[in-house]
Amino acid sequence: MTTLLQHADYGHLLPAAHGLLEEHTDQTTAHLIATGAAMEALAKKFGGDTQTWKVAGMLHDLDWDSLDKDYEAHCGGKLEELLQTIEAPAELLGDIRAHYQSKYGVEYPLDTELRKCLYCVDELTGFIIAVTLVRPSKKIADVEVRSVKKKLKDKGFAAQVDREQIGSCKELLDMELEELIEIALDAMKSVADDINL
Ligand SMILES: [Fe+2]
């Protein structure tokens, strides 16, 4: 298993990333802020540049709210156009495209820890939001690792979430599912106000 560290940092784009979310996202904003926080936490574990990993998490679905659920167009020209407005390096575009493995897997393989983490945690942050919203309080502070784990086993709950992608943390990152959930959940709790949970 190759585990190369991220080779080009772009953490200086963090303020610009916030600006892009404000201007171009709506429905997806909470998922992106959550994923940014989770990626920042994962960077600490894997020794990556925390701000770079956060930017990748924050911008990975930047184009989605502009695409009217067009999966074919996701991570394509629109994304490129938006990233150009902040003079983002090619590395960021590659890191984002790598999270869409079914389309860009050949061109942008999961060959860095940043990419592997983004791939595994993307579906998980969305799932944790779904778990939170069925709690009576709708507060993430009331969500525990074991309740997330239990819901993951319930295939009828948030059925669109790809459990296999989340579970690939074991193979890709040598990380137990429980630990990935714990890191993502704690990170999301730390930004609870920003994601309205
Ligand atoms: Fe996503």
**Which stretches are poorly predicted, pLDDT < 50 over at least 5 residues?**
none
Please provide the count of β strands: 0
By secondary-structure content and strand pairing, the structural class works out as mainly alpha
Q: What is the rounded distance between the termini? A: 37 Å
Order of helices and strands: HHHHHHHHHHH
Q: How helical, in percent, are the residues?
A: 55-70%
CATH uppermost class: Mainly Alpha
Under the CATH scheme, the architecture is Orthogonal Bundle
Beta content comes to under 5%
Q: Give the count of helical stretches.
A: 11
**What is the C-alpha radius of gyration, as a whole number of Å?**
16 Å
Total domains, how many? 1
Q: What is the average of the pLDDT values?
A: 95
Major sheet size, sense and barrel closure: none
The third-level CATH topology is Hypothetical protein af1432
Which distinct ligands sit in these coordinates? fe (ii) ion
Report the principal-axis shape: globular
Chain-wise SSE layout:
Elements: H1 14-24, H2 29-46, H3 50-59, H4 77-84, H5 90-98, H6 101-104, H7 113-133, H8 145-153, H9 163-167, H10 169-173, H11 177-190
Helix pairs in contact: 1-3, 2-3, 2-7, 2-11, 7-11, 8-11
The site of fe (ii) ion has 4 residues, from loops.
Notes on the protein architecture:
- 58% of the residues lie in helices and 0% in strands.
- With 197 residues, it is an all-alpha fold.
- It has a single domain, classed as Hypothetical protein af1432 (Orthogonal Bundle), CATH 1.10.3210.
- The model has no long low-confidence stretch (mean pLDDT 95).
- The site of fe (ii) ion has 4 residues, from loops.
